[in-house]
Amino acid sequence: MRQPLILLAMLGMVTVTSQVQAAPIQFSGVVPGTVVTKGVQSIRERRFEHLIEQETDFSCGAASLATILKYAYGWTDITEETVLAGLMEVADRERVRELGFSLLDLNNYAQSIGLRGRGYEIGPESLEEISIPVIVLLNLDGYEHFVVMKKARGDRVYIGDPALGNKVMDREEFLDSWNNIIFAVVGDGFDTSTVLLDPAQPLTARRMTDVFSPVPEQQLLDFGFKHSEVF
Asked: Does an H or E element contain 157, and which?
């Protein structure tokens, strides 16, 4: 990988929706004298599983960062609102009003909470070498939009989009939208078995070849982790 760099980028996309959760369903008579309870996910819950949804038109970066903090670092109480408040403390408010938050703002916020941001420019041929969840900027129909890239395998790229939910992008579609920059959050407490690296698979036979495995500790050093944080 090349030396870390910090790239300014705008945020975009709008989504304001209510939160609805599916309730468990009980089945009686399956086994005489018993009641079976089956947990059920709504389509919306499935779409935003292990993903913090953005609530404003300028907070995709905050929601993406909050997602990584919650599901890769175990900050269970973190919210988009918490990250937004912290970002406003380290950002130029006038610039935010005009352009939204930047990766520099995300980096400054990460430093303020004891973590570090690392930006890398990589080529398409190195996409599968990204072994930790990272934040990327995509141009989606003219909108500059931050999402979490979980991993890439073959012709599939697994995305956590804080506006639209979890999805699988075709590799070529992703490459056409991506600016070749990844932003990694590194520091103490990273979970090498984070659920973000084990996204739901497409319902095809190929899913059997896409096996989840934790991040090798040695590989974390390539993303800016220190020996003391890894070994």
From this structure: strand 156-161
